[in-house]
User: What shape does this take?
Amino acid sequence: MKKINELFDVEEDFKIRSIHSDSRYVGRDSIFFCIDGLSVDGHKYIEDAIFQGAKCIVYSKPLTFKHKDILYIKVDNVLDELNRVADLFYDHPSYKMTVIGITGSSGKTIVALMIKNALSQFLKMGYIGTNNIEYAGIIEQCPYTTPETIFLQRHLNDMVKKDVKGVTLEVSSHGLALKRVDSVHFDIAVFTNVYEEHLDFHGTMENLMASKAKLFSLLDEKGYAILNTDEVRFYTLVKDSIKSHVLTYGIEHRADVMARNIELFIDHSEFDLQVHDELHHVSVPVLARFNISNILAVVTSLLALEMPIMQIIDMIEHIQGVDGRMELLNHPYPFHVIVDYCQHAKSYEKVFQFAQQVKKNGRIIAVFGAPGKKNYNKRQKIGKLANQYCDQVILTA
Assistant: This one.
């Protein structure tokens, strides 16, 4: 709970119990922020918010009527003000723990959960992303890959109250473009890769990459940017503009952390891990070349946290896999079953390529449906890839 004059430069001093940008959840003694969103304009719901108990309205458009007993605060950008106030209302929670943000078209969930699981051996960690929200024994469904500002700050604040020391946060291009993490203090920002995705929202690849690049602009001089040198376009875009420390990883292009002499098997992968000039042979329980890149992202992030390399190697050799992400099912039958969560045509191709690489004999049978209801061109691309790599395809709804 805060007083209104702690949040805004006003003379009034009444107490604020909660803050909201959705009028359906407004309660007594609250602030309602009129967000003009993609499909809904919050200015249309001011009266609903006041009926629910809002005592303060933060708005940006002209209003035709104002109640005498309600405080109206006009601002240039309601979303920017929401970020500022949410961070203040919840006592700057991201400054009180180590926050690791992961962005990229694919691999966010794997990298975020692997870092979280690795660090959980030493301290209380949290996770917010596609799978759910996890911290201090709490598992809760997450409404978006990157939740909106108030929801996010409230949960970060609860983590602090429960003595959580660090959190891994999946940061989507939507979340960055919609300013959901503008008030989050990141200690480490990790980039995995970028594919053609969500162009119905971003318009162009340039806009998409600019959204992802925004995460690294949120780092201060003490932070660490973890970049994939194999993603040449993105690396070239951001490398000269980052003001934080930079550590790199890659397979094809020179980096601080690299994987050489890669061998792929149906149940694990082996490679030589090169960290600067040191070389260590490792065996990791993850499948496919793209997951080796994800492992390198994890290793580089742990190095940024000043963890000794031998300790990191021990961690990745016993690292816990992520359910439904290149998961080899355990069963007694004379064939292999791998489950993966694919959204992008590029991801399908990489999974199919792995199946061909490790298949000794027999057939590749793919079972999948159509991802998403908007991008029908994606379905055609996936169909062509399945026809190219697979012997049999079973389509679901």
User: Anything to note?
Assistant: The CA atoms of residues 217 and 241 lie 8 Å apart. Residues 289-304 form the longest helix (16 residues).
